[in-house]
Amino acid sequence: MGPFISPFNNLLCMLLGISFTVWVTLLLVFIIVPAIFGLSFGIRELYMKTLLKVFKWATVRMERGAKEKNHLLYKPYSLNSIIAKEPTSLEEELKEIRRNGSSRDLDGSASTATGPSPSSSEFEMSDTFYFCRRGIESIVDDEVTKCFSAEELESWNLLTRSNYNFQHISTRLTVLWGLGVIIRYGFLLPLRVTLAITGVSLLVVFTTIIGLLPNGRVKNFLSETVHLMCYRICVRALTAIITYHHSENKPKNGGICVANHTSPIDVIILASDGCYAMVGQIHGGLMGLIQRSMVKACPHIWFERLEVKDRHLVAKRLSDHVKDKSKLPILIFPEGTCINNTSVMMFKKGSFEIGSTVYPVAIKYDPRFGDAFWNSSKFGMVNYLLRMMSSWAIVCSVWYLPPMSRQEDEDAVQFANRVKAAIARQGGLVDLLWDGGLKRGKVKDAFKEEQQKIYSNILVGTQADRSRS
After folding, report:
1. How far is CA 52 from CA 170, 354, 373, in A?
2. Average pLDDT of the chain?
């Protein structure tokens, strides 16, 4: 048997060598080299159009089969509000409740056939109905919690995790889904992991080498070139198809770029189109190694865990950075946590107190190809990246908005809200006032005290008006 095994082993080794050579050649020719020069052969766009046609057919077939079998295909309600709410003030609603309940309003009058009566109490028991109703509404239709759950699609993208009620409907549909699993895990996942390792390895090696050079234009040029090259390779690792709008508004040196936050990959989505100085907390392990190598070539701003809690120290580091117009613009996500691509939540005011020009950016992902939202309370980073790399693709649009500056009669909170509103409007997102910190914490006492203060002012104002009359 010996003489026969040796030729077989040689043949196997030769086939493996040829396969590896072909694999590396295809990666270099069609992905890595075009990524380095920012070129595209249009393969990803053709891939996206093909997927859309397959999704459309699968969705029609699935809906038809569900209707025949009387199955519920989608959730009975979407992420939109399920309770009809009219934009009315607390005072107006209390007036309406008092008129309907106790026949008294906030002006101290009783609704009678002859006209209003001058008598009224400072507090009406019926006022509690307003707060009870609002509390029940918040429980039933919690607009905050919905921002931290995956978005339910109106169509099926052959991913079981994209439809909560997936079940067998037809053999052809199941075969198509199984073929998709083979393509995603057998071909796309190994390809993407290879590209991700290549991009991260090149970033660590090249930035470490560039860090040995003296500061100057050559170092800055090489640093920006390497960062762009590596981020573009990482974008290919996600099969990301990105459309950039209004590039004339791209952030400039000495400014601050603020964007809504859906995923950790927001960083490479933006950085593959321009270089930024990153701001973040120092980590250990692989992430710490990447941070230490990056900061050698580029003035990123990394904070120790205890330093992050010092607002004044953070503000000073940011202020010193933007004063130097030769340094890259700072990239900040003021929400402080990831939101599920449907809304924009409260912006922390720290980055709006510096006084620098702010460049707003709106990012909107297309969930039909893969859910980019990172639910950090449910999935770890490795699990999340595996889900991203086993999705069909990451498709998104990026809008560069005109630069904005703080007005004279505007404080940092008002400025942050104005920027947030502009981002939400451009990205087609819901503008919410809630703090994203509610994802893990309780409602701050300040929110409760604000409602109490409004109600108290209404009662005090009513009493003062009655005294003057």
Report:
1. 20, 45, 21
2. 76
